[in-house]
Target: Cupin
Amino acid sequence: MSKEHAVPPTQGVTVTLLTSVDLGPEIEGMAGRQLRMRLVTMAPGAVFGPLHDHKERPGTVYILQGTITDHRDGVATDYGPGVGWPEDRNTTHWLENRGSVPAVEISVDIVKQG
Model:
C-alpha cells in the first residue's frame, strides 16, 4: 500500500458551520443541494482525512492563517495565508498541518442536504 493511501485518521480538526443556503429555491435543478461555508481550524500536527474525493461536492478553500499541506496524486503542496485551491470532481486528497501554529481555512462547497 502506498503512503498516499495510508492516511492517518482525522485528528486535531475543528469545523464550524458559518452559514448555508438551500439552493433548491434559488437555482432550478438544485433541489436537495446546499451551499455552505465552514471555518476549519487544524491544530499543529492535525490531519484532515481520510483520503476523499469531491465528486458531486465541488468547492473552494482559502487559507487565513498557517500552512496546510494538500496531498494529491502522490504530491504534497503547501498553501499559506492568502492562497487557496479548487476542489472539483477530479480532486482526491487529504490535508495536514505540518506547522507549529494552527492553520485556519474558509471552505465553501455545494453538498447534498441531509
